[in-house]
Amino acid sequence: MSLERPLPEPGDTVVLMPANALVLGGDLGGTSTRIVIADHDGKVVGRGAAAGGNPTSHPASAAANFGQAIHQALAGLGDGPLDPTMVKAAVIGAAGGSALSKPEVRAQFDAAWTGAGLVCAPDFIGDLEVAFASGTPASDGVVLIAGTGAAAGLVRDHRLIRTADGHGWLLGDDGSGFWLGREALRSLLRALDLGEPIGALGEAVVAAVLPDRDPDAVAQREGYDVLRDDLIRTVNSRPPVLLAELARTVVSSYEQDDPTARALVKRAADLLTETVRRVRTTSDNGPLVLAGSVAGDSSPVGRLLRQNLRDHFPGDVLTARDGVGGATWLALGALDPALATRANHTRLVS
């Protein structure tokens, strides 16, 4: 979506938007679906929220949640319902948005859209673009999301033109929450194989994966083989992505100065820095926006990552803010580039 509109040529039909035109922004995540409707001045006039809207995992329920959040937003904020036909531009960020390229999945989301009475065509974009727009009104720069997974993107004119990683837990997502959890478990299994002390991180992993395990058995060499087999069996019986839950265990052990946890945190920060390096060169001076729990200010990975980035790249390192606000601001720019102001950006993402 370009925020630069070409001047009309002689003979072109110029469509003037009504003064009371509205825009809609959406953020479809794995755990929540959020919709915001705003007017020309960036004033929010409607909000809606529902459960997860990731179209990859459960498209039918995600589409239903999408529709629920839209209907809630169209109910307005106390001044009566909004006219859905007055929504003239919409930008919706979707985690797992590539699933919308499947006709059967897109049809379910389209049905939720038109079922709410909306008539404009929604622009579905990736969560990287939304995260970037939530962190800065700049048109060019780099964005990194590091949560359960990890991916970086190069943004030009508010559009994603190149990505790095985001390959999923099996093939990539280096430095992510999943990576931290998997590596914590792998380090524990290596210690068990060698009969070495498992340390504070290993004990915490055992407690998280096998909460009913007798702590004394962990310290007994003769119980190591049984413990190892129980860990492997338990982890393989669950969805792999649940390993990301162990990221909190790594962080807690890091704060207790466990050497294995500290090494994993440093390695995660280095891997995420390398992911950024794949899309950003040292000559790029646009902002770099960080999003996701692993890259957050409160995460030790995020703190080391920020230091790495400041040491290797010029430009500001910023933190992503309200994703649905970023999408709504992009929708304002789609309606009229003149509306994509810094003031409106601040109003929507704060």
UniProtKB/TrEMBL annotation:
Keywords: Kinase, Transferase
Superkingdom to which the source organism belongs: Bacteria
Keyword Transferase among UniProt keywords: yes
Domain spans labelled ATPase BadF/BadG/BcrA/BcrD type: 24-304
A Pfam family that the UniProt record links to this protein: BcrAD_BadFG
GO MF annotation list: kinase activity
PANTHER family named in the record: N-ACETYL-D-GLUCOSAMINE KINASE
Protein name: N-acetylglucosamine kinase-like BadF-type ATPase
